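Technical note accompanying the year-one report. For the benefit of new consortium partners, we illustrate the data format agreed upon in the data management plan: each record pairs a sequence with a structure-token string. No post-processing was applied to the example shown here.
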Amino acid sequence: MLRGRAQRSVGRADPGPEARSPHPAHTRSPGRRLREGHGSAVAEFPMVAVLIVLIALLIVQAALLVHTRNTLVDAAVQGAHHASLIGSSPQDGAERAERLIEERFRGGLDADATATQGPDGVIRVEVSATLPLVGLLGPAGAMNVQGRALDEASW
């Protein structure tokens, strides 16, 4: 036994969208049809997709820059630690940093390392690199990082 609304709809055919709407689609004004938004998903998808792809590319670019910076800092620190060992010179540390950068980037990054020893016994290895700002191609930008270590002989 059906009651209420369900009882009334038994045995009746679906009237269709034109019968339900007080204004059929062909008689509505253009302004009203635009406000209803039918078909707007087709136009919105390309606009949103472009934004999502752009954000994803920016995230990849930021990750690439952070990874490159961290790798250069590690090479500078390793070079400074190598130069701080007894029997090594600051120039040995700079060479070690350049060798590490060469191994890690396989010649794809133009980087130079310089090492200096201060009067307080601290050895500083500074790495200057020119890296692309857009992906692996594009205009270049400069990045300078530094690694420090205390010379063992100065203790």
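Partners are asked to follow this layout when depositing records. The chain has one domain: 45-154.
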